[in-house]
From TrEMBL:
Keywords for the protein's UniProt record, in alphabetical order: Cytoplasm, Nucleus, Ribosome biogenesis
Bias-annotated ranges (Basic residues): 1-20
Protein name in UniProt: Ribosome assembly factor mrt4
Family (UniProt): Belongs to the universal ribosomal protein uL10 family.
Amino acid sequence: MPKSKRNRPVTLSKTKKKGREHKENVVNSIRDAVEKYDSAYVFTFENMRNLKFKEFRDRLKSSSRFFLGSNKVMQVALGRSVADEIRSGLHKISKLLRGDSGLCFTSLPKRHPKRLFNEYEDYDFARTGSTATETVELKEGPLDQFTHEMEPFLRKQGMPVRLNKGVVELVSDFVVCEEGKPISPESSRILRLLGIKMATFKLHLICRWSSEDFEFYREGLEDSDIESS
């Protein structure tokens, strides 16, 4: 009888990881982009959604290139000081790569990226741990939006429900989430069922670099902030 493939051991040590070669490829790609495109932007993001970001990136595919990932790797590619920057002034944007941030290289006139970034936002369902933007409370009584098959699932999410003649009924008022407080896994599932979206995926431009000039977009930032960081 042939051996079963289901219980075949797998050696995890053979799994490929993103190591030095990957980092070097990213560094080289960023340096190529510096030479290819006219300007570079640093941007930050809120509530990243990979699919939505891909859609935004595809809009600029013919004229731009984006980089997300390790801030340290991107900083190395650009240069972290005047001494090791690959083009004059690039160490400034390197020091602004902090937290949830990325790079955009483009040859578009500067008014276009600024408008596209400022206008773009997309709403999605909040994930576990994110902060509720409003209080959602369900009142006692029938929940006509749910079918009777969902009653066991709703109970597992902590909702005080029962079936009354085949109709899902809330036996007491129930607070799904409270404004300003973290959303629990159960609350996240209930909000999705209710169709309530609390997460806004948004991109914010921080600064722009070109061989001719450098410009801040975030209010309050100055050259002194970069040099002192």
